[in-house]
Each structure stands twice: as C-alpha cells, then as structure tokens.
Design goal:
By secondary structure, this protein is an alpha+beta fold. The chain is built from four helices and six strands; from the N terminus they run αααββαββββ.
Length: 171
C-alpha cells in the first residue's frame, strides 16, 4: 500500500510526460513550416511545389484567384489552338492528376522574366520548370517548360494569387 501511495505522490509532483501526447509546438509559426509566405512571390512558387509534392488541392487552391484562367497550347490541333479554362475546372483537373499519380517532382529553375507593376499589386513571372510525373515504376513522364504566371493582390500586405497561368511546355 505504501508503495502505491509513494508512486502516486511522485507522479503528482513530477507531472506526466506521455510520449503519445507531446507538448504543443510553441515555436514561431513560420520557422518550421514547409509552406512559403505568399506575400512574397517566391513563397507562391514554394507553395505550388509543395502542393504538387504532397498532391494537396487545399494548398493548390489557395494559390489561385477566384478569376483564375489557365491557358495551354493544344498542339494536336492543326496550327495549335489555345485552350482556356477557369479555376473550378483547373481544381478538378489538378485533383484528378493528384489522385492518379504515385509521385510528382517539380523543380523550379531559372526565372526568365519578372515584371512587377509600380504599385506592387500585379506581377508577371516566367519561370522554367522540370516536372517528373510517376504513374508507376514503369510509367514515368518528364515535362520541361515554362510557367508564365500573372499574379495579383489587393494591397501590398495581401498574399499573391495566380490570376493567369499560361503553360508554355510542349506536353
């Protein structure tokens, strides 16, 4: 009986360190996050890469403005035809991609062009990328190209959102 009381008293005074209930992380929110700060253009690119790496449409959707337009050139049509779609169709298409692949590896390379409006509310960035799409061990597709993005924000303290993405790859 004394032994039980002794252990109860010790546990009351020393507290409990349960390895299955670790303490909350109280470090500053930005210091351990894998996501970038979307108030910076580089943060948008980082979040885009992470949305592909984790195949996460929640992260992806936060990058796109409500008036988002995606444009690509359909080379299967004679002369090549530009195809456009909006945010909802892009989210559905990206969700389908994320669900049907085992892995997506995106590498952002050189920024070819970056133009920011004087009021810092609109920017156009053309950046080279390499994307490796792994459907299975025997079905791997590599795509190289350029992402031509127009990004906007309401005020300089707001996050950047992609309003237009012209895919300049020949996939």
């Amino acid at each position: 009986m004394r032994t039980v009381v002794f252990f109860l008293l010790i546990s009351l005074f020393t507290g409990c360190d349960n390895p299955f209930a670790p303490a909350l992380d109280d470090s500053p929110s930005g210091s351990t996050s894998i996501l970038g700060d979307q108030r910076q253009l580089e943060g948008v690119f980082q979040n885009f890469k992470q949305s592909y790496a984790f195949r996460d449409t929640t992260i992806y959707g936060q990058l796109l403005a409500p008036n988002f337009i995606f444009v690509y050139r359909d080379y299967d049509n004679p002369g090549g035809v530009d195809v456009f779609w909006g945010r909802d169709e892009d989210i559905r298409s990206t969700y389908g991609l994320f669900q049907n692949v085992q892995r997506l590896d995106l590498v952002w390379n050189t920024t070819i062009s970056s133009v920011m409006e004087p009021d810092s509310l609109k920017a156009t960035v053309i950046r080279n990328f390499n994307l490796t799409v792994t459907f299975s061990a025997s079905d791997v597709v590599r795509v190289d190209g350029y992402a031509n993005w127009t990004l906007e924000r309401g005020q300089t303290t707001d996050v950047w959102k992609i309003t237009r993405w012209r895919d300049e790859s020949k996939f």
